[in-house]
Amino acid sequence: MNTPAIAVHTPAIYIGRFQPPTQADFAALRRMAARGAGGIVVLAGSHQAPSPRQPFDWPTVAALLAQGLTTEEQAALSVLPLRDEDTDSLWRAALQRTLADLDLWHDDSRPVLTTASEIATLHDIGKLAVALHADLGPVATDSVATEGASNATGVAIDVASEASTQAAAEPLTETALRDLLFDADPQEGTAPATLPDAVAAAVPAPLHAQLTHWMQTPAFAAIAEEWRVLRGYREAWSVAPYPPIFVTVDTVVHCAGRVLLVERGQHPGKGLYAVPGGFLEPSETVFEAAVRELCEETGLTLDMDAVDAIYRGVAVFDRPDRSQRGRTVTHAHYFDLGDGPLPQVEGADDALAAHWTPIADLAGHADQFLDDHYLILEHFLALPRPAPVWAPLAVFG
User: Fold this and answer.
1) Closest CA relative to residue 280, chosen from 238, 333, 242
2) Residues 50 and 219: beta-carbon distance below 8 Å
3) CB 62: neighbour CB atoms within 10 A?
4) CB neighbours of 2 closer than 8 A, spacing ≥ 6?
5) How many CB atoms within 10 Å of residue 200?
6) Contact residues for 57 (Cβ-Cβ < 8 A; gap 6+)
7) Any alpha helices (H) in 271-326, and if so which ranges?
8) Which of these, 21, 249, 367, 373, could form a disulfide with 289 (CB 3.0-4.6 Å)?
9) Which is nearest to 143 in space by CA: 166, 127, 124?
10) Are residues 61 and 90 in the same domain?
11) What CA–CA distance (Å, rounded) separates 330 from 5?
């Protein structure tokens, strides 16, 4: 299928996680800036807690992007942080709604540029980007559309040769780059970690100093520790004849305008908030497991003979990448204790602490929760969605 030509004056959208941004990303961003019509860089996976998969928050990502571009290029681009959603369709709708709310989207003819490396927002953001513009046919980058074209200043854009050079180099994925970074974390008593050569080659030189500095911080050490735990977890299951699929349970418990949360005491997500939950045992139903995990982690006692009176329903959360431990399907159960007095709770088992948290205080704090637990709360408690954020990239330069 031939991709229709895209006019130089048409604004473009480039979607990625940029963890970290690579030379290929900057090549695309420079092409966008050179087209003279501005561009929107969607920072996928924003508004979530730092993890080995997404170690940088979105303002840090924006700063890294700004560092790799000239002042003129920064002025031509803006950033739009967008969080993950539970399904592909919800993500597509959120992107379109956010662009419309900010008056950045006026029709369905604007191209979406997707990265050539790892940019999965959910399972395959490249497919999502193409789906937004099915009328344009497959749109991977604007290389086909702008090949031989001139930008607003009349300078030819030789994207064909640039793309072939990148393909020949076979750049590392963002996952591979992060693995190199975390594997370089020094053991106690050794010299500080330094930027691995392969990472230095994959990201622009202006980013090297900030990445090297970050590798000396306690925040990096904590994420590297979690990365090692997760690597050990995956290695332990690598001998299975088939990729394992884990079944877990979670519980959302409401009482008097508050929700019961636990503070994680172990990796993954050590120190983050979560809803009580855990793994299904062979001899129990998911409902029985939910009640058991709730009691084990919080000390809350439920009368099994009367539990039906407070049980409000269950929802399955099964996004393939929702947990960094591997493919994990959870059954989230909702219990409503009404407006009576708050039962006494105390963190135990995997939970460092347990809290009755005012529901009104949750909005805007998705970046303090494990994995998709904020989305689970949002599903049952109808939390208000945060206002969209949009900013010129130059603000972070």
Assistant:
1) 333
2) yes
3) 26
4) 137
5) 16
6) 46, 50, 367
7) 286-298
8) 249
9) 166
10) yes
11) 44
Distance between CA 25 and CA 45 in Å, rounded?
16
Neighbouring-strand partners of residue 351: 264
Secondary structure element (H or E) that encloses residue 199, with its range: helix 197-202
| pLDDT digits 0-9 by tens, 292-316 | 999 999 999 887 777 888 999 999 9
Between β-strands 112-114 and 351-358, what pairing exists: parallel, antiparallel or unpaired?
unpaired
Tell me: the pLDDT tens digits for 2-46? 433 334 445 677 888 899 999 988 988 888 888 776 788 889 889
CA–CA gap between residue 83 and residue 95 (Å, rounded):
9
Q: Is residue 2 part of a domain?
A: no
Asked which of 217, 237, 257 is the last residue of a domain, the reply is 237
Q: How far apart (Å, rounded) are the C-alpha atoms in residues 305 and 329?
A: 28
Beta strand 112-114 with 273-274 is unpaired
Number of Cα atoms under 13 Å in the Cβ half of residue 94: 24
Residue with tokens 């099994």: 304
For 103-142, write each residue's pLDDT tens digit: 776 555 454 544 433 333 333 443 444 344 333 233 333 3
49: part of which helix (H) or strand (E)? none
Does residue 390 belong to any structural domain of this protein? no
- The domain that holds 109 is classified in CATH as 3.40.50.620
Q: Are 137 and 2 in contact (CB under 8 A)?
A: yes
Residues 6 or more apart from 71 whose CB is under 8 A from it? 394, 397
CA distance 376 to 317: 8
Find the domain containing 296 and state its range.
Answer: 246-381
Cα 305–chain centre separation: 41
Instruction: Output the pTM of the full model.
Output: 0.81
- Tell me if residue 259 falls in helix, strand or coil: strand
Same domain flag for 232 and 256: no
Q: Are 263 and 353 in contact (CB under 8 A)?
A: yes
CB of 128 closer than 8 Å to CB of 92: yes
Check residue 303 and report its DSSP letter: -
